[in-house]
Amino acid sequence: MNYMPGTASLIQDIDKKHLVLLRDGRTLIGYLRSIDQFANLVLHQTVERIHVGKKYGDIPRGIFVVRGENVVLLGEIDLEKESDTPLQQVSIEEILEEQRVKQQAKQESEKLKVQALKERGLSVPRADTLDEY
Amino acid sequence: GVVYRSLEDCPLDEDEDAFQALGEEDEDIDQFNDDTFGAGAVDDDWQEAHERLAELEDKAGSGREPDGPVGNDGDVLGDPEDALAERLTRLVIDSELEDPAIMQAVHTREPPQPGGLNSSIWDSSAVLRRIRGPLLAQEMPSVSVLDYALPQRPPQARDEERDPSERALPRRSSSPIIGSPPVRAVPIGTPPKQAAIPNFNQQILCPKPVHIRATMQQRYPAPYGERMSPNQLCNVPNSSLLGHPFPHSVSPVLTHLQRAQLLGGAQAGRMSPSQFARVSGLVGSPLPSVNPKLLQGRVGQMMSPAGGFRAFFGAPPAPPPSQLPHPPGPGSHLQNLRSPQMFRPDTTHLHPQHRRLLHQRQQQNRNQHRSLNGSGGDRGGHRSSHQEQIRKDPYANLMLQREKDWVSKIQMMQLQSTDPYLDDYYYQNYFQKLEKLAAAEEVHGDGPKKERTKLITPQVAKLEHTYKPVQFEGSLGKLTVSSVNNPRKMIDAVVTSRSEDDETKEKQVRDKRRQTLVTIEKTYSLLLDVEDYERRYLLSLEGERPALMGERKQKICDIYDNLRGKAPGQDR
């Protein structure tokens, strides 16, 4: 049955493997089992995938119930093409370590930048206080 | 408690989605709010429930009816749960009876059924019961989590494996929450346990055949050969009921509604004859008995779960392949496939590489037939892949067909609008462009025209809603509730005119910039109007056309004036 052609109704996506990006930056991959009118999702055999550079690691999570408002986007995964990726899968520990290292590096560079600006008497404007004109 | 009639009387709800989703039809499409406050919400009358529970524990087994608003209807209800059911039913039905929006609410008295609380609330159609009668024979009694969810029942150990197919839906009660509109005939929250047919649907459409699921003792990993998938089970008894029990009676003269549908749903002049027939065909059949004027406001609620949908998709109303009854035949074939691997029974504990190998092996098996996800979006002929799905995926179809229909119904209701070009401008334009492309391709290309299914959204007449702040008797002041149609005023913006003297250069520059931006905005506004006139021109009757063209010309002049810095609207 062709549900709502031309729309983003998720009904056709049920029981298919999806990649879901959440607002907090997490990437979940799982089988979409159920939806509702708020686009709350039930994901089955979910795996949280962490990407760092060209590597990624999967953390098996089981069943997820995701509140609809936290979803940025989701897309169906083509099972045939799924393994056809230049990315390299590594173990969970390794990817978490990589992630931590990357976070640290980012924080350090940010700190240096703010410091340099302060020395010059400038301040980095925060996004919420930006003037319009 | 007091029941409020309109949405605007509701207190502020954290669930913004509920309010966003509502169109002008506040009273009618209020499923979310009802879910939060109305019949979908948990009974907030915990004191009473608690008392009842305490009494129940004190006098275990005695059939004493608790005191409370539950009237003595004459039925001696030994079970306090049923007393609550009575109260609920009455509350629901009574408010429906009073509501002018609902065309016909029938207050039927139903004998309390031991199994489900829901049934007494939702199924008040005798027809439905008759249909359900023969099918009920197939329904095996099972422990319903629904019972467990009732506050009155003493908490029993329900640790025995609950059949997920009998997935219980939390009990719903309608509580007299402030501001919540009366319970609609449209089911809200989660779909009810039995197929719900709102009262008024009796008048319009045939009741939907009920999907009865024979209980399955074990969902998995039972071998496939021994049982059919849930959908198959549903569809076997129902196959005779599918299709249209109502004879098609196409009314020769289009009602105003039908015309609106045709005009609104289809692009101007692009309505193919087959689409025309489909739209009027389906709309025509249930209409004859209904007052068209009433129907205008009720289009959204016209949808019966399965049958009515066919009006909204331009596709021919053929029974979908997946619903044809599958013979339990493929057992032997399945047995062979089953033994190597179940589809990821629980592979999450496996090493990722192991899992990948496993998966790839499964892939190969699958690729011999067809890919599980359907090859490249081929939705139409996916019968065999659907069968594959049933065979290989023990977790498939956890979401029942009726649940899908139910969600789809809500989504369709959200698409209702009085003027799709106003509410959904970008989608309409996008779709027009797509169709133009397709049409252009067809001209050059070969082969028959690919019947692209088109979503036809119902058009609703516009109803005027003015917000009146509600007031309690005996209280001071009024409640003000913020909703999408009545947003809360956050800023007290006051327009102050500046004098030219104390303006600095910077300010002047800034003002100039702002002025330019405003001019550009106005220009685009007028341009949109001009395009709008062109569209209306094509749809309008002959007599109105010159007037429209005149107005359009005026708008163009306004644009010109605006860009020149003069105030628009001057006479030419």
TrEMBL record, chain A:
SUPFAM superfamilies tied to this protein: Sm-like ribonucleoproteins
Designated name of the protein: U6 snRNA-associated Sm-like protein LSm1
Organism annotation: Cyanoderma ruficeps
Description of how the protein assembles with itself and partners: Interacts with SLBP; interaction with SLBP occurs when histone mRNA is being rapidly degraded during the S phase. LSm subunits form a heteromer with a donut shape.
Top-level lineage group: Eukaryota
Boundaries of every Sm domain copy: 5-80
Keyword Kinase: no
Protein family according to the UniProt entry: Belongs to the snRNP Sm proteins family.
GO biological process: one example: deadenylation-dependent decapping of nuclear-transcribed mRNA
Entry GO MF terms: mRNA binding
Keywords on record: Cytoplasm, mRNA processing, mRNA splicing, Phosphoprotein, Ribonucleoprotein, RNA-binding
Compartments where located: Cytoplasm; Cytoplasm, P-body
Protein's UniProt keywords contain RNA-binding: yes
Automatic annotation (TrEMBL), chain B:
Chain residue ranges for the region called Disordered: 1-30, 55-82, 147-183, 310-394
Claim: Nucleus is one of the keywords in the record: yes
Protein's cellular compartments: Cytoplasm, P-body; Nucleus speckle; Nucleus, PML body
GO CC term, one of those recorded: nuclear speck
Compositionally skewed regions (Basic and acidic residues) per UniProt: 55-67, 156-169, 379-394
Residue ranges occupied by any mRNA decay factor PAT1 domain in the UniProt entry: 468-540
Listed Acidic residues bias regions: 10-30
KW Nucleus (keyword) present: yes
Biased composition regions of type Pro residues, renumbered to the chain: 316-330
Keywords noted in UniProt: Cytoplasm, Nucleus, Phosphoprotein, RNA-binding
Gene Ontology biological process terms from the UniProt entry: deadenylation-dependent decapping of nuclear-transcribed mRNA; P-body assembly
Biased composition, class Low complexity, residue ranges: 171-182
GO molecular function: RNA binding
Record-given protein name: Protein PAT1 homolog 1
Native source species: Cyanoderma ruficeps
